[in-house]
């Protein structure tokens, strides 16, 4: 019995979120009248602080952020020094494992955590007015979104099948609850039911795959699995059998064809604020899950899973773009567009190893990560616009609701145009560079036909994005209600839309951050 | 074949039979009871593997708590069996195909070739005084404390979701609020009215 108390420092952000979730639950039980406002405020504070702590506990990320801050005018240099001094004395390693190897703290995890926590915070801010209008802004919603964030953080930092699965279930269960949160809406209940049943099925597939991998390698720890496969101690047939189920589980969580059936129905049926939540941060967590399982654990089997991902990504890009054309509901259209975007993320993941040569890996995986991050930024803005047009008793769900937006409010029409152009991959917005870097990785890996298919399909896909722009600018408004929104939503949505444009002009910073994170973690 | 193997085969046969009856019996109460039987035999198989704690927990938690609740729900709800069986024959070919595919795949992988005694040697026998329960507890609170704590938070999520989805105040329901009742003052209930005496 020689047990060493684990090092809690790398998991400081997770512990903060877990403790605050419990505090918020108790506080909102006792503060009845202001419970919702209190829970909202505390949740936002916790998310922002947790993002800050995630930066502080990851030395590489901290150095990168300090370098950026010291470039800022005025107090930039001082601020960077203060930031660095906060983490002094905790000279953690670049990659540190704790909790008996179940938790891994590295820069990849740190960066993804920061992005997903901020995405949740933004999604909550956009959705607050929407929920209040529909009288469903109960404190449990904020509690669940915090616990969902905790699940994502656990997933992102998982180095063990058990912790990965725990994080995945915590995230999914909270999301099922949030989808069903509008109890009066039969559509939301139906969507939650579909999401739950299919999600449980996917979890079952994933668990089955995990048990097969465990049976073959005798280890649940991802690094142990990688070692066992490297030493050829494991039986290949059993491994590949397990791999099939693991890829299926990951594909479901990413929402790619043929495991996409839940995406359009859930996106359409859920309250828009929850759709916004599902379509943003969880995609980053699912990307992290794919990285941890496939790249960290089963890298030796790259040949096998790359072929599977190739099928999934081609099908997703083709079906996602073609099906989106036929949609008249904008939430459904964005759902299909999300499917095709996830296909592009897989394109980056499948270009890592060519004939056993691993020199492409860094470039390919960082392009996939850059794609995932830029998709989340675009998705936040697009569903943020859908929420902005909705009001009490009215859901802006169809593309027709965007008719003549330019006449009603030209600023928001311009923002929506930026988002749509970026999603279509028109230069020079962030979506263009995301597509470009993924396609570069695919071409470098020698899959030219794959790149051709992807480009052709994006051209077809541009049709439905541009249709929204056409409807906004060249048609008469049916509904002339002025667009009202709180100041902070206007400000943040504008910042979000402008970020797409600015990052499109200067994508180097974010791209190199992604590449550096992978370099420091792989 | 020694006695242990014989017991294993008997228990397994009962379990497979019970599991089949769970999905084939027409009466949901019978199905639930067959599920109880399969859990109990699974507990017996755990015992054969010297995992006595798991065996007892399986019987106590699943049979004692979960299945009783399940039976209770089945008896409370009036399930229309004919509606459940609608479309059975039209779904059968697809379902059967997937089922057969899964069985064949599993048989290929799970056969003796990969997980047999040659590939997975028998673990060394434990010495006297070895406690399965103690070992499990030690592991749960040391090496596996991280997923263990996460599991507790997961249960919290389930609880919060369940309560927030089902707890609601219906209108027009006559109910008393205990805290209001306790906090009531004499002045709320009795009103003293001063009025002049009346003559007849």
Automatic annotation (TrEMBL), chain A:
Task: Cite the Pfam families for this sequence.
Answer: Proton_antipo_M
Q: NADH:quinone oxidoreductase/Mrp antiporter transmembrane domain: from which residue to which, for each copy? A: 158-461
Q: What is its EC number?
A: 7.1.1.-
Gene Ontology annotations of biological process type: ATP synthesis coupled electron transport
Task: Name the residues that span the membrane.
Answer: 15-35, 47-69, 110-129, 141-158, 193-217, 237-263, 308-326, 333-354, 369-390, 411-434, 446-466, 498-519
Recorded GO terms, molecular function? NADH dehydrogenase (quinone) (non-electrogenic) activity; NADH dehydrogenase (ubiquinone) activity; quinone binding
Query: Chief subcellular site?
Result: membrane
Q: Top enzyme class of this protein?
A: translocase
Q: Which domain of life is it from?
A: Bacteria
What membrane topology term does the record carry?
Multi-pass membrane protein
User: Which reaction(s) does its UniProt entry say it catalyses?
Assistant: a quinone + NADH + 5 H(+)(in) = a quinol + NAD(+) + 4 H(+)(out)
UniProt subcellular location? Cell membrane; Endomembrane system; Membrane
Q: Name one GO cellular component term.
A: endomembrane system
The protein's UniProt keywords, in alphabetical order, are: Cell membrane, Membrane, NAD, Quinone, Translocase, Transmembrane, Transmembrane helix, Transport, Ubiquinone
Q: What this chain does, per the record?
A: NDH-1 shuttles electrons from NADH, via FMN and iron-sulfur (Fe-S) centers, to quinones in the respiratory chain. The immediate electron acceptor for the enzyme in this species is believed to be ubiquinone. Couples the redox reaction to proton translocation (for every two electrons transferred, four hydrogen ions are translocated across the cytoplasmic membrane), and thus conserves the redox energy in a proton gradient.
> Self-association or partners: how does it assemble?
NDH-1 is composed of 14 different subunits. Subunits NuoA, H, J, K, L, M, N constitute the membrane sector of the complex.
Q: Which family does it belong to?
A: Belongs to the complex I subunit 2 family.
Protein name per the record: NADH-quinone oxidoreductase subunit N
From TrEMBL, chain B:
Chief location of this protein? membrane
| GO cellular component terms listed in the entry, alphabetical order | plasma membrane
Q: Where in the cell is it found?
A: Cell membrane
Protein origin, superkingdom: Bacteria
- What GO molecular function annotations does the UniProt record carry, in alphabetical order? NADH dehydrogenase (ubiquinone) activity; quinone binding
Q: What is a single Pfam family found in this protein's UniProt entry?
A: Oxidored_q3
EC category name: translocase
Function description: NDH-1 shuttles electrons from NADH, via FMN and iron-sulfur (Fe-S) centers, to quinones in the respiratory chain. Couples the redox reaction to proton translocation (for every two electrons transferred, four hydrogen ions are translocated across the cytoplasmic membrane), and thus conserves the redox energy in a proton gradient.
What name is this protein filed under? Answer: NADH-quinone oxidoreductase subunit J
Starting at the broadest rank, the lineage of the source organism is: Bacteria, Pseudomonadati, Pseudomonadota, Betaproteobacteria, Rhodocyclales
